[in-house]
């Protein structure tokens, strides 16, 4: 069988993910794997019709498509995102229709599931038959146990093709939302109280998004900086070279860094506005997110109030919502809200006004919502990965983690370790153990009592402030 591998990495032959494909070539000598370097060659694919036709021919001739891509900022790299957009823009979906598809990613397992869900949804939209996803940690290929699982995964994919396995679509088709938003209520201006408000967008002229951006900007009484992300003058997507790891400095010498310093860094309230293209925001926005990787794992939005404006069916895009919300949380910022153009114009007006008001209020009070699973889990993944090996090259991350006490392994809390050991030993005494088992709920709430006792005093103190 002939498998068309669509490689998402900008690193081409030097891609970590591609090494997994090379492994498969050796493991399945009776099959051919032809690689399309969508990530590396995206510029050429955009510009040269004959190269694009060559790719479509490779897909057409194939028996199945294997998306082999790294996870970049919770999704696929911007370059692969752009490739998927091109399929839509150039009406090339037919070439993919009916083919079996699978996806293989490498990453450090941070939001690999959202990258998978995105590709799965895209395949469903193209009428492909998605057999499954395989997520490898970057170094998994070194382990024989993983190699075996990878072979089983691909065997299943090949069998699905051979037996023409029927597969149901998992992600429902997206509803079209026609442009309909015209602001109806003149905005009552919200005093920005000296907070710096920045709205970044990729709105097309005359779009709902443009109207939403304009209306939100008008909701604030003070000055608001509004900028199109094209003004960042990026020369291209993140190359994945990781040369930024040492000093948080990107190899690109284009306008991105200056744009970042001018708009993102000083913002107290940062609003990002984008239009849904296929199942995510545009490749341009994805490129913006990928390029922000120059700051490594240092939380770039720390302490900011962040909001999104989305033009498109966000209500049907749980994965996009998950990425947008988790991105804010991981960056140690607070999500004020997301306003879309899905409801009636009156509701959009009201939502934008509320967003403006809330963003200032929360910025004033310094509220940052406590992290939930994505950021808590993310912290532990990054901490372990950086300390466990990445710090040899990711020097800037290492410095930041040390300075901010982020190497907070439980093993370093010696007092707690002694306490746990002592409690554990006491549990060996049958009478103590019986008493604890009987009163477990009481013991669980006991350490919290002090907080309740001091709550009133603290409330009085807060009132006086
Ligand atoms: C810009 C950028 C963003 C990344 N984002 C993520 C991420 O969100 N989650 C993750 O687990 N790994 C992330 N990684 C790590 C890559 O997924 C990992 O290094 C991958 O193996 C690279 O594969 P490649 O060599 O095929 O490009 C990121 C790496 C880069 C350069």
From TrEMBL:
Xref: InterPro entries: Flavoprotein-like_sf, FMN_Rdtase-like_dom, ISF_SsuE-like
Membrane spanning stretches: none
Residues covered by the NADPH-dependent FMN reductase-like domain: 1-128
Cofactor(s) for this UniProt protein: FMN; [4Fe-4S] cluster
Gene3D superfamilies found in the cross-reference section: 3.40.50.360
Cited Pfam families: FMN_red (PF03358)
Record keywords, A-Z: Flavoprotein, FMN
Family under the similarity heading: Belongs to the SsuE family. Isf subfamily.
Protein name: NADPH-dependent FMN reductase-like domain-containing protein
Record organism: Methanoculleus nereidis
């Amino acid at each position: 069988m002939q498998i068309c591998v669509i490689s998402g990495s900008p690193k081409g032959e030097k891609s970590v993910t591609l090494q997994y494909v090379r492994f498969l070539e050796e493991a399945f000598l009776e099959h051919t794997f032809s690689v399309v370097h969508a990530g590396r060659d995206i510029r050429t694919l955009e510009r040269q019709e004959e190269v694009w036709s060559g790719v479509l021919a490779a897909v057409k001739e194939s028996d199945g498509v294997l998306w082999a891509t790294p996870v970049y900022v919770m999704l696929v790299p911007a370059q692969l995102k752009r490739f998927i957009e091109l399929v839509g823009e150039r009406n090339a979906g037919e070439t993919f229709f009916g083919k079996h598809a699978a996806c293989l990613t490498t990453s450090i397992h941070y939001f690999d599931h959202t990258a998978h869900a995105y590709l799965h949804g895209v395949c469903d939209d193209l009428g492909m038959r998605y057999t499954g996803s395989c997520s490898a940690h970057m170094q998994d290929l070194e382990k024989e146990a993983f190699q075996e699982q990878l072979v089983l995964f691909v065997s299943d994919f090949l069998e699905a093709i051979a037996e023409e396995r029927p597969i149901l679509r998992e992600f429902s088709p997206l509803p079209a939302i026609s442009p309909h938003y015209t602001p109806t209520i003149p905005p009552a201006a919200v005093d920005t109280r000296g907070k710096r408000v920045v709205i970044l967008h990729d709105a097309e002229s005359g779009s709902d998004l443009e109207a939403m951006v304009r209306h939100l900007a008008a909701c604030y009484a003070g000055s608001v900086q509004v900028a199109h992300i094209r003004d960042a003058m990026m020369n291209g997507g993140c190359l994945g070279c990781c040369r930024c790891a040492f000093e948080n400095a990107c190899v690109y010498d284009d306008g991105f860094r200056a744009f970042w310093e001018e708009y993102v860094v000083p913002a107290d309230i940062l609003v990002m506005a984008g239009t849904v293209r296929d199942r995510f925001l545009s490749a341009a926005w994805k490129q913006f997110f990928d390029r922000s990787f120059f700051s490594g794992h240092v939380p770039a939005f720390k302490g900011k109030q962040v909001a999104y404006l989305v033009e498109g069916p966000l209500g049907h895009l749980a994965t996009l919502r998950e990425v947008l919300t988790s991105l804010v949380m991981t960056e140690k910022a607070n999500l004020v809200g997301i306003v879309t153009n899905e409801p009636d114009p009156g509701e959009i007006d009201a939502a934008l006004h509320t967003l403006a008001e809330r963003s200032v209020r929360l910025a004033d009070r310094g509220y940052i919502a406590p992290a939930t699973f994505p950021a808590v889990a993310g912290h532990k993944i990054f901490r372990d990965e950086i300390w466990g090996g990445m710090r040899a090259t990711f020097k800037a991350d290492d410095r930041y983690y040390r300075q901010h006490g982020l190497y907070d392994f439980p093993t370093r809390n010696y007092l707690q370790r002694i306490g746990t050991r002592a409690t554990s030993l006491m549990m060996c005494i049958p009478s103590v153990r019986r008493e604890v088992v009987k009163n477990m709920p009481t013991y669980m709430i006991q350490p919290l009592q002090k907080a309740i006792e001091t709550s009133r005093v603290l409330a009085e103190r807060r009132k006086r402030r």
